[in-house]
Please model this.
Amino acid sequence: MAIPVGKLKGMSAQLAKIVRQQGITNSDQYLAAVKTKAQRKALAQMAGVDEATVREAGNRADLNRISGIGGVYSDLLEVAGVDTVAELKNRNAANLHAKMTEVNAEKNLTKRVPPLSLVETWVATAKTMERGMEY
Model:
């Protein structure tokens, strides 16, 4: 589910301005524009930001393709060690849920951790998806 680029976690104001000037208005378009390392490098140079900023927003756009993973849950997933769909599809849902619960207890990122059933759905969905980012 595409969201406006300005609402994408990790998207700096400078980067959002530049990508909008390029006609990129949503997270799906952004992901397509930063799929390869060469694309990310070129966009970073054009926007005057570091490649890590471009990559982080791309990772969030990648995760955003899965229903139910919004900004807060993408934060929780990232701190738990999952920042792309490619990583998510290789996780054991129960272990990931336990890690998310542990991380949230330490960092208080969200009011509630998603239920295990939702994490299972995310992992199953990720297994059906093509890689969004290339490294």
In short: The radius of gyration is 15 Å. The chain has a mean pLDDT of 95.
